[in-house]
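Supplementary material to the annual report.
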Amino acid sequence: MPDERGHFGDYGGRYVAETLMPLILELEREYRKAQADSRFQAQFDDLLEHYVGRPSPLYFAERLTEALGGAQVWFKRDELNHTGAHKINNCIGQILLAMRMGKTRIIAETGAGQHGVATATVCARFGLPCVIYMGATDVARQQPNVFRMKLLGAEVIPVTSGAATLKDAMNEGLRDWVANVHDTFYIIGTAAGPHPYPELVRDFQSVIGKEARAQMLSRTGRLPDLLVAAIGGGSNALGLFHPFLDDADVAMLGVEAAGYGLDSQHAASLLGGAPGVLHGNKTYLLQDEDGQITEGHSISAGLDYPGIGPEHAWLKDIGRVEYTAVTDDEALEAFQLLCRTEGIIPALEPSHAIAAVAKRAKEMDRDQIILANLCGRGDKDIFTVADKLGVEI
Amino acid sequence: MTRFAAAFPRGRPALVCFLTAGDGDTAANLDALVAGGADVIELGMPFTDPMADGPAIQAANIRSLGAGTSTAEVFAIAAAFRVRHPEVPLVLMGYANPMVRRGAEWFADQCAGAGVDGVICVDIPPEEDDALGPQLRAKGIAPIRLATPTTDAGRLPQVLEGSAGFLYYVSVAGITGKQQAATAHIAEAVARLKAATDLPVAVGFGVRTPEQAAEIAKHADGVVVGSALVELVGEHGQDAPRHLRELTENLANAVSTPARR
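Predicted assembly:
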């Protein structure tokens, strides 16, 4: 848990403009009330079961395990959720909070479009107007998701400022919010931003780890030896890791995007960045010596963000979670490996986790268990993959 | 008497002018503001992600960073300004990350060395004051806080605690350079703030014309103009000083002449 001002060790906090502070404080008060309200929890659980399709399966990847020749590999199948990724868990929780607070308009930022689609989905479900900010560069390369959001009734606003990618979309979302605080709720897509967002996003995503822990105990009678998840902002990883943090024997590995390599262009904020302040929180950032934010690169648009959730920054510093990074090429190889061995087309984000799993499994015994989060499906990525493989569709 | 106290004399509202450091010939542009009658200078520290700013100042940030402006150059501009204008208060305005990158103490030292009088950090609210405030105060640099339309009576004491120089009232909930608040709203808000503090209250965000400035000057101790000046730099480049001086003169006349109600 963060301290009462939202700090995880040195990280986190509420670094926002004064205009937003009263709203941030109100959000925290309302979230505390919601946590204590069994009806809120019941409504959240009901929507997750009947709308999202939870619990997601825990799956033993038998052929992948054989192919790797080491530890058993199990997947938490969050790619089977409605809208195809873990993002929806958080959006359900936040829109319920928005309605509790009497907000009548929803905004969000999106990179690859997955969080935008999930936000547009819950807005359609509850009949609230929805504005999605998306970098113009991302709009151009993620047309299918742009169309999905529009089908769901959202207004998609291309952002041309800065580098026209995810961080610029987030800046524009904050600019909208500051001008519309009276009626607007900002659904942040990952476990980052000003307190209490990192905490509440983590809590909503923790359904992943809670389910997985119970499922693993019931299927195998034991806990896994190693948890693995990909990290952009870090919400799917925290969702899996958090319910296991007190299980001292469970090791955890977060996998950042090494892009072209950590000595080149990448999106690995923890391994290749330094602490700083951006978008409402103190955390590790990709930045230069003057504190100017630098652009991340990853084959996966969902990992292509120059920051990371503050709780990860803290978990890294205290050593509870190990962090590594996987390149575009390694992720692409893992993507194909899972397609062929298991008949599952993963998103490029969890393909990074799978690449790390492949390395670790080989170094572990056959009676050991790795549990990885398959946080999204790959339908959205087939064009990117085809392009990288030199195939014309 | 501090430079701020001299710049905000009783009975005559001050004109506070903003420009982004490293956007165009900043020294010449700042000199034009002073020549035109600016009482306080706000020097913007360029940042890649200016999330409280509208299109005009965003563009100025991009131009400045595109020209390679470094933090060292921002302080060099400030230090040179201080030598040319020993009496004019100079405020650095910007975002937390470039300010704390080398440590808050380093930043406060640099401010003191360059003759900077105050610092406005958009994304360090009172709740995070520890990140920069104590270090600035230790060096005698004024942390200038922002109050906004959403700052309610319960919160105002916290905003005022530890703030110095002047209080900057952001007249609209929004970003820089956009719509202006209704005068009635500003009058009421300034009265509320002045009842709670002895600091001068300057009003900004969305003030573009001498007419608007004159209207605000009836109520406030200072009027802040930023985007309209920054746009002149973007539009006129090397020829900007002439235009900056002209607008500043008009603003200064508008601000200082109206009789107080």
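The mean pLDDT of chain A is 96.
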